[in-house]
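[Automated response] Your request has been received and processed.

Submitted sequence:
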Amino acid sequence: MHGLSVVGHRCQARNDRAWAGGRATVGAAQGKVYYEVTVADEGLCRVGWSTRQAGLDLGTEPISFGFGGTGENAIAFEHAAAS
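Generated structure:
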């Protein structure tokens, strides 16, 4: 199940068998960029960065990075404790 609020500030993805993801409509090519995420519901969450060519499963490819609710960083399926 995917959902996006009318104003576009809240989204939710739930699936018992796989991660689900979403992507912003704008990107950054240089400079310093940040974004904030507030987890307002139960369940695991993974946020991160990827290139346009990456899939929506953050941290499963070398061209994406994910930080998950388990407290681990993920790149290309390699998980490591966040420092």
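Summary generated for your ticket: DSSP finds no helices and six strands in the chain. The chain has a mean pLDDT of 78.
If you did not submit this request, please reply to this message.
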